[in-house]
């Protein structure tokens, strides 16, 4: 009896081991299948990627044989294809290995830079110049979305404005005494542009004041409801009140300022500030109409966008010496 | 329990939008934001850096990022592009002289790959000013 029992145990043991072995085998098989599927996916992706990449490279190589006017379109389609490929990689990165993703990205970058290089070579950007300036018709540069053009546009944008200006203000005048009265400026945008050696007096309450390309001018203005925006001014004196002041790319400007929020300067040098001290008849009324708080003047709180150091004051602006301050402004 | 929490969190995420507000300086981005939010607008100063406001609208949480538009800090705009659902491009309709700048900057933005999934709204601000261009004129620009 005992012997029988012992045998039974042995058989059971054997059976158990057998099933375990089978299970192990199956598991191994499954693993193998799984990794095969994964490999298949990667392989498929690799094939597909290479096919597309070859297509793009083919396109790039064929560019030389195309006519110039067809080029922009072709470049467009190529960059679209590159973008698609990029999306393809991004959508597949779940099953791709990190190393692979890196490799594919590198290939994509290479394609991109090659495309850009060719574009620069075959489609040179038109340079903007002032050749026909004396004819008084400054020609617009061909609008282009390419990056390098931006700087040129920035520096020349003022000279090629193609929209007729309807604002009130003065333009292209030198050596004159100019005046604007309450009726003209009230709630209006005032624009002063391209003035030299002028004195401009603005009585009343303009909505905004824009100034650009002013040289050796004096601007006296009543309270401006919102903002004053000035750029490219040199050796000027402004006596202004406003909610905010923005001064760009200017040099040697004295500002007698009343500002209720903040004033900022950017790309400026040698700017000096003093408190607003303009007086004329009915200035109180204008202050009231402008909505500016007469009690609140932040004329010393100047933010310089080229000086983000809080510990040291910006070298680009200073408070004007009391002895250099002008006390009275002729308002006649 | 854990699974449900995760689900809930994802649902919440879906109802959260990140919106980036950009445009040239002096366009009125901060003013728009403060107005939306019902705050006072008479103390606004030029933005040095950025403001974030969270608004609730129809069950959506809108995180609005208002980034300063000065020329010297425009190069930092790209730091905000990641995960942006919507882009509001604010244009000062009355500033005719810088429309060209404005156009160039916008086109440059639109080339940005990280913004390709975002929806664009061009906000024609200051239309009430007397010298402003109409929305139609702006569209042509």
TrEMBL record, chain A:
GO terms classed as biological process: post-chaperonin tubulin folding pathway; tubulin complex assembly
Keyword Cytoplasm: yes
Domain C-CAP/cofactor C-like: 143-307
Pfam family, one: TBCC
Keyword terms of this UniProt record: Acetylation, Chaperone, Cytoplasm
SMART domains: CARP
InterPro entries listed in its UniProt record: C-CAP_CF_C-like, CAP/MinC_C, CARP_motif, TBCC, TBCC_N, TBCC_N_sf, Tubulin-bd_cofactor_C_dom
Location in the cell: Cytoplasm
The UniProt record lists the keyword rRNA-binding: no
GO CC, any one term: cytoplasm
Subunit structure: Supercomplex made of cofactors A to E. Cofactors A and D function by capturing and stabilizing tubulin in a quasi-native conformation. Cofactor E binds to the cofactor D-tubulin complex; interaction with cofactor C then causes the release of tubulin polypeptides that are committed to the native state.
Protein name, per record: Tubulin-specific chaperone C isoform X1
UniProtKB/TrEMBL annotation, chain B:
NCBIfam families, per database record: small_GTP
Pfam families attached to this UniProt entry: Arf
Signal keyword on record: no
A Gene Ontology molecular function term of the record: GTP binding
UniProt keyword list: GTP-binding, Lipoprotein, Magnesium, Metal-binding, Myristate, Nucleotide-binding
Binding site for GTP: 23-30, 69, 125-128
BP GO terms, sorted: establishment of cell polarity; establishment of localization in cell; system development; vesicle-mediated transport
Sequence similarity: Belongs to the small GTPase superfamily. Arf family.
Ligand binding (Mg(2+)): 30, 47
Species this protein is from: Agrilus planipennis
Name of the featured protein: ADP-ribosylation factor-like protein 2
């Amino acid at each position: 009896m005992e012997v029988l029992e012992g045998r039974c145990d042995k058989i059971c043991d054997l059976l158990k081991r057998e099933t375990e072995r089978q299970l192990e085998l199956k598991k191994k098989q499954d693993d193998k299948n799984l990794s095969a599927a994964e490999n298949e996916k990667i392989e498929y992706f690799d094939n597909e990627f290479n096919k597309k990449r070859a297509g793009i490279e083919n396109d790039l190589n064929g560019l030389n044989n195309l006519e110039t006017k067809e080029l922009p379109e072709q470049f467009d389609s190529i960059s679209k294809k590159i973008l698609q490929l990029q999306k393809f990689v991004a959508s597949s990165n779940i099953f791709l290995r990190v190393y692979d993703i890196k490799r594919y990205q590198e290939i994509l970058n290479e394609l991109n830079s090659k495309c850009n290089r060719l574009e620069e070579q075959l489609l040179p950007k038109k340079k903007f110049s002032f050749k026909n300036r004396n004819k008084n018709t400054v020609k617009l540069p061909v609008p282009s979305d390419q990056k390098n053009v931006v700087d040129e546009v920035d520096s020349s944008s003022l000279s090629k404005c193609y929209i007729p200006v309807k604002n009130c203000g003065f333009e292209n005048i030198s050596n004159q005494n100019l005046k604007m009265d309450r009726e003209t400026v009230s709630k209006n945008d005032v624009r002063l542009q391209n003035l030299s050696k002028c004195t401009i007096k603005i009585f009343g309450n303009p909505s905004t004041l824009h100034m650009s390309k002013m040289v050796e001018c004096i601007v006296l203005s009543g309270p401006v409801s919102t903002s004053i925006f000035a750029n490219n001014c040199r050796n000027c004196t402004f006596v202004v009140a406003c909610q905010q002041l923005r001064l760009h790319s200017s040099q040697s400007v004295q500002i007698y300022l009343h500002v209720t929020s903040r004033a900022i300067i950017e790309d400026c040098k040698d700017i000096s500030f003093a408190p607003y001290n303009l007086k004329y008849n009915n200035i109180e009324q204008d202050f009231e109409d402008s909505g500016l708080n007469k009690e609140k003047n932040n004329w010393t709180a100047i933010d310089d966008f080229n000086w983000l150091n809080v510990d040291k004051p910006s070298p680009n602006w200073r408070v004007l010496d009391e002895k250099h301050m002008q006390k009275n402004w002729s308002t006649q | 329990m854990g699974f449900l929490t995760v689900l809930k969190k994802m649902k919440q995420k879906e109802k959260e939008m990140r919106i980036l507000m950009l445009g040239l300086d002096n366009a009125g981005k901060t003013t728009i934001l403060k107005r939306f939010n019902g705050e006072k607008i008479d103390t606004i100063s030029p933005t040095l850096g950025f403001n974030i406001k969270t608004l609730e609208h129809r069950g959506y949480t809108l995180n609005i990022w208002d980034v300063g538009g000065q020329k010297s800090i425009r190069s930092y705009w790209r730091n905000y592009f990641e995960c942006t659902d919507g882009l509001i491009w604010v244009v000062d309709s009355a500033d005719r002289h810088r429309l060209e700048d404005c156009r160039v900057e916008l086109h440059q933005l639109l080339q940005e790959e990280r913004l390709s999934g975002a929806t664009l709204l061009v906000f024609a601000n200051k239309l009430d000013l007397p010298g402003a261009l109409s929305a139609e004129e702006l569209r042509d620009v």
